Amino acid sequence: MIPEDHPRYRSLVAREHLARCAREGIVVPEGLAAHGRGEAFDYLIGEKTSPAALSAERIAAALLLPASHPVISVNGNTAALAAGLLADLQDASGAAVEVNLFHRTAGRVEKITRLLEDHGVRVLSGVPERLLPLSHDRALCLKDGIGTADVVLVPLEDGDRCQALCAMKKTVIAIDLNPLSRTARSADLTIVDELTRALPAITRFCRELDREEALALSARFDNRELLREAVCEIIRRLEHALD
User: What is the torsional sign of CA 121, 122, 124, 126?
Assistant: First the structure.
């Protein structure tokens, strides 16, 4: 049992949950390493949503709302950490949800889909095709999902697929705690925030923005400036770490 007054309670609960999901085959062992890397960057940004991240979350909603075919791509870690939050975002944004995995087996896809559906997510189904220009199984996606999406939200992304999606002229929104990663630098919009803070914020903005506000926001943002602000925030925190 983890005492609720432990200073790292939320972090420890998330780790325990991911470990349990790994034993159940939803998360792969490599996903545990990826979570630890992200958690290290969360320490650097102070484990809170920065003003730049909040701006990016508002812009993410502005990109999703007027899209003709928005899709949220989900991997094992995302499903394990945020299945219920994804259901809320799907309801607010109208986006489709597709399971897309690097370590792909039919069994994992089935388990992740079941977890998502148990939390109210409507998951696209069908026979995936190798539609992305990649040599690994991230290339496999559904034609009526990621294959024809105009906007793709990719939480906890990997860089080569992000680049492939951008090369296909899709608008890519990434959630990545590392502002220096290939994903962060390749995406059209990068949210440098922790997944379970970012998703509710995007959902809230999807419910608050009207179409005119969304179109105006989506037409005038600078992702490089948002990334620069994220890096500057880390530098400021490091400079004052021992004050």
Answer: positive
Residue 229: both structure tokens together: 């602000």
The beta-carbon contacts of 232-238 under 8 Å, at least 24 apart in sequence, are 233/45, 233/46, 233/50, 233/52, 234/44, 234/45, 234/179, 237/44, 237/45, 237/46, 238/44
Asked if the structure places residue 157 within a domain, the reply is yes
Number of domains in the chain: 1
- Is 28 a member of any domain? no
Domain assignment present for residue 119? The answer is yes
CATH number of the domain to which 187 belongs: 3.40.50.12640
Both structure tokens of 217? 């926001």
pLDDT digits (tens, 9 = 90+) for 139-150: 999 999 999 999
Please give the model's pTM, rounded to 2 decimal places. Answer: 0.92
Note whether residue 231 is domain-resident: yes
Determine the structural domain holding residue 71 and report its residue range: 51-239
d(CA 130, CA 198): 30
Phi and psi, residue 105, nearest 5°: -135, 160
Gyration radius from the chain CA atoms = 17
With a cut of 80, say whether residue 116 has pLDDT above it.
yes
